[in-house]
Specification:
By secondary structure, this protein is mainly β. The protein contains 1 helix and 22 strands.
Length: 217
């Protein structure tokens, strides 16, 4: 069944309006660079970049057209890269990326962030085709000093290629999740997860093995 011409024209008008809004966002934020082939729906995202912050969004990055459901909060000197072909899915819950002063968040190509929260004060890296499920949180710092003798601790998080972090998972500072690993829902990850392993629990423990996930979708 063909789409009515009136609908096609309306969709084209919305897309043109969103492209214009994106140009305006990039004019307001000198550190914001959005590839021309990224989705025009990114115009509905919320961008807050302090001076010296850089946000790079690659070709083919897609999201839904939901006002404020995708949020980028970058402090002074922070750097965030969203690799080409990544889906920032906001249908279930918002996607939030927060980078503190001088911190870095790197999302590899073909990633899938589904209603999750990434927060970095040091470095947070996701490899190619890494998935993060809804309600999950990756936080590379304790967030606050415990007391005068126990200051906040910060350590990088790394998620390998084709790893899958399921829903409502918390990944804490200093953790490395290996390539093709799977972390089960509602897990608390405080230690490294080896490549090709299945881990779950609070705290998460390795419970089995998983094969090559590079062909999964």
């Amino acid at each position: 069944m063909s789409i009515p011409v009136s609908v096609v024209l309306r969709l084209k008008a919305i897309q043109a309006w969103d492209r214009w809004r994106l140009r305006g966002q990039q004019a307001r934020h000198p550190g914001l660079r959005i590839h021309p082939d990224a989705s025009s729906n990114l115009a509905s995202a919320y961008f807050a970049l302090e001076p010296g912050a850089e946000l790079r969004i690659g070709a083919g990055v897609v999201t839904e057209r939901r006002a404020g459901a995708l949020r980028f909060l970058l402090s002074r000197g922070a750097r965030v890269e969203v690799g080409e072909g990544t889906w920032l899915r906001t249908e279930v819950q918002p996607v939030l990326l927060v980078a503190g002063p001088g911190a870095e968040i790197r999302i590899g190509p073909e990633g899938f962030l589904n209603g999750c929260h990434l927060s970095a004060k040091s470095t947070l890296t996701l490899g190619r085709r890494a998935w993060v499920g809804f309600g999950s949180r990756l936080i590379d710092a304790d967030q606050h000093d415990l007391d005068a003798e126990h200051p906040e601790r910060v350590a990088p998080i790394e998620v390998g290629d084709c790893a899958w972090i399921a829903g409502d998972v918390s990944v804490m500072r200093g953790v490395r999740i290996g390539e093709h690993a799977v972390v089960g829902a509602r897990s608390l990850v405080t230690a490294d997860v080896p490549p090709h392993s299945v881990a779950f629990g609070q705290p998460a423990r390795v419970r089995g093995e998983v094969g090559d996930r590079s062909r999964t979708r």
